[in-house]
Amino acid sequence: MKEINANEFEQEVLKGEKVVLDFYSSECPPCEALAPKFEGLAKLYGNNLKFLKIFRQQNRELADKLGVKSSPTLLFFDNGAEVGNRLTGGIKRSDIIHNLDSMLPENKVKEIKDQIKPSVSECDVIILGAGPGGLTAGLYLCQAKINTVLVDIALPGGQVATTHEVSNYPGFIEPQAGYMLSHNMSEQTKMCGTVYKVAVDITKVDLEKKEIVIDEFETLKAKRIIIATGTSPNATGAVGERELKGKGISYCATCDAKYYGDKEVVVIGGGNSAIEESDFIAKFASKVTIVHQFDKFTANKKAQEKIFANPKIATVFQHEPRLFRRDGDKMITELEDLRTKERKTIVSDGVFIFIGMKPNIDLFKDKLQLDQWGYVKTNEDMQTSIPGVYAVGDVISKKYRQITTAVADGTIAAIAIAKELD
């Protein structure tokens, strides 16, 4: 693997036959997560493709010319032409491999795959999920000198990383940007010594054996497992929603509100998330229309007051979406009046959906005792129905789901495990 600069781009990349180029930055957690995967694949595929790195901050002109807007970004070239899919952000090993394999003949791919040897490593505790609960558990465990590995299919931070502002986390007088709060939590836990394996594919989870397989070839074995997999946004189930996800329909205001400057937006939902995020979206959009199934919002009163006082925000009560479609560069949302069953449409530039969450338990939902809503049941020490398996944060059955309650859960589980393993 070789590092180049902009002056070498033409010779090394455009004239370099089959090339993988990594635009990276310093102080970039996603870049740090990518580095060991990139290096490992360079050793595996390096005889057939050229692996190159370029420091984006010192080669901005080239990055801008190529349309590279974030770090890390992987570009794939074959005889001077860009091929495959650009990869950016929390890049998974499997996505890189998919692009690499498409650049080589089948017999060569098979030859490379035959070289992959399964690996096994052991630790004391595996934490599944790197949100506030998992990060806090990792911090307490590493401070107790317990060998801990934190695994996540995404980057550290959980949903906090996509929350535009956190105003109720103790210790901060001023509201904190969600991404910075989660970044600081992650860096604190990492510096303590917790091993991170993030932006990976989790192939298999065996809670009884305390074994997890990631990226199809690496098996992690532990004495204890902490489940901190959190929740994911609920879908409306309306026609067209799945097809238009990321193409006009979003579930993250922090990620996408900035793209709707002076444009009109529809928000589906009426709880705290919907109302608070609508207030944030209105800082960019010219108009926000909130659609809610009931005759009044369920969000806290303070948040509602801000919404009703904002002239850019309109409300449509007792309606539900039945269909989403695109018409050119516009989004068409077809609503049903729940009282009259009549249909009407709203034309907007984008749609945001905030209608609650569901627990991320697909890999092991048949193994654990769950409550009636599908959340994991635990005792006061955060132990699940399987000995040696704990669960913390939003994935567990409890009355309130906040950053502070997830942090508390992680603390309790870590202390309980530390005493057991002492």
Architecture overview:
The chain has 422 residues and is of the alpha/beta class. The chain has 3 domains: 2-113, 3-Layer(aba) Sandwich (Glutaredoxin); 120-232 and 357-421, 3-Layer(bba) Sandwich (FAD/NAD(P)-binding domain), CATH 3.50.50; 249-353, 3-Layer(bba) Sandwich (FAD/NAD(P)-binding domain), CATH 3.50.50. Helices cover 27% and strands 28% of the residues. The chain has 11 helices and 24 strands. The strands form 6 sheets. Strands 1-3-2-4-5 form a 5-stranded mixed β-sheet. It has a 5-stranded parallel β-sheet with strand order 9-8-7-13-24, covered by helices on one side. α6 runs parallel beside α11. The longest helix is centred in the last third of the chain and has 19 residues, at 403-421. The two termini are 43 Å apart. The mean pLDDT is 94.
Give a quick set of tags describing it.
single chain; 422 residues; alpha/beta; Glutaredoxin; FAD/NAD(P)-binding domain; 5-stranded mixed sheet; 24 strands; globular
CATH architectural type of the largest domain: 3-Layer(bba) Sandwich
Instruction: Give the end-to-end Cα distance, rounded to a whole number of Å.
Output: 43 Å
What percent of residues adopt helix (DSSP H or I)? 25-40%
β-strand number = 24
Q: What is the molecular shape?
A: globular
The poorly predicted ranges are none
The number of distinct structural domains comes to 3
Structural class comes to alpha/beta
Rg estimate, integer Å: 23 Å
CATH topology descriptor of the largest domain: FAD/NAD(P)-binding domain
**Biggest β-sheet: count, sense, barrel?**
5 strands, mixed
CATH class of the largest domain: Alpha Beta
Number of helices: 11
Averaged pLDDT: 94
Report the portion of residues in β strands: 25-35%
> Could you give me the name of the CATH homologous superfamily of the largest domain?
FAD/NAD(P)-binding domain
Query: Strands across the major sheet, in which order?
Result: 1-3-2-4-5
